[in-house]
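Per your request, structure below.
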């Protein structure tokens, strides 16, 4: 393991040599997802590299998670149906944001839907059918870790769908989402945007650490190679599906900590919620019963290593 530098590879003779870092290609104008730098009101909260400091992040994330816990009670008490879609390139930070957002909430109220590849049967269904069964009921918030937008992004980039299927998706998706909104579902869509250089840095970091290498899939490598085509896919997706009933919100995520806080803060701002958390309850006293337990030594305990 070489956490302090680029990964090593073995030559045919068995010796190790440092793998050469590939030169970053020059992207066509507009192909990168780098967002314009925003003015930071408090520069002391950021590192010299411009990233949010860990101490600031930990304080803010605890505060926002507390508010998200209050929001879940409001969603439940008001019978709201909330759908939050997380999309973006590989390594853009969608999974980390979802994990952070749900860390202090109840999985019975705030649940995550991360669908695997469709089965042979699902491939013959109406495209939106397998997603529809995971939509929220009253009092639920569902977070989609990728969604039906696989069709206009990953599937189109990797040629997993036909041009006709892609065109039909772009035609029907806005109408499908308008139907969801008319049915009473609140639809929130986040696109996590990461630059080519930052995506490459994250992939290289995963590649350098064996315990993280499982995160680097063949799909990630192919998507990285087709970064420009993914830019085309994103732009086309936004052109057709950035509708007023369910607009896209872009989350610049080269700074993962800031991205998580910005996403959580924005989600909270969309709801005029109140604190309806349950009141403190009085714990009952143990009820005495005429019962004698079997000897504890008859049970099998795990070894007390710690």
């Amino acid at each position: 393991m070489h956490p302090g530098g680029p990964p090593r590879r073995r030559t045919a003779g068995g010796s190790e040599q440092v793998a050469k870092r590939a030169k970053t290609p020059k992207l066509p104008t507009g192909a990168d997802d780098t967002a314009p730098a925003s003015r930071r009101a408090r520069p002391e909260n950021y590192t010299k590299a411009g990233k949010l400091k860990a101490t600031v992040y930990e304080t803010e994330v605890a505060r926002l998670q507390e508010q998200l816990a209050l929001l879940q009670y409001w969603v439940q008490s008001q019978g709201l149906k909330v759908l939050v879609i997380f999309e973006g390139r590989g390594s853009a930070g969608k999974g980390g944001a979802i994990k952070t957002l749900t860390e202090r909430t109840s999985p019975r109220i705030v649940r995550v839907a991360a669908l695997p590849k469709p089965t042979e049967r699902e491939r013959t269904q109406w495209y939106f059918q397998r997603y529809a069964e995971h939509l929220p009921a009253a009092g639920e918030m569902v977070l989609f870790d990728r969604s039906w937008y696989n069709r206009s992004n990953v599937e189109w980039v990797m040629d997993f769908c036909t041009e006709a299927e892609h065109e039909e998706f772009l035609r029907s998706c806005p109408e499908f989402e308008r139907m969801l909104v008319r049915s009473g579902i609140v639809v929130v869509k986040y696109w996590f945007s990461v630059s080519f250089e930052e995506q490459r840095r994250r992939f290289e970091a995963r590649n350098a650490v064996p315990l993280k290498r499982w995160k680097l899939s063949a799909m990630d490598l192919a998507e990285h190679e087709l970064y420009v085509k993914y830019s085309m896919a994103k732009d086309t997706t936004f052109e057709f599906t950035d509708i007023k009933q369910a607009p896209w919100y872009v989350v610049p995520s080269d700074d993962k900590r800031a991205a998580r806080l910005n996403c959580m803060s924005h989600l909270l701002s969309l709801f005029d919620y109140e604190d309806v958390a349950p009141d403190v309850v009085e714990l009952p006293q143990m009820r005495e019963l005429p019962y004698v337990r079997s000897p504890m030594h008859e049970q099998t305990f795990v070894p007390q290593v710690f």
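The chain is about 40% helix and 10% strand.

Regards,
D.
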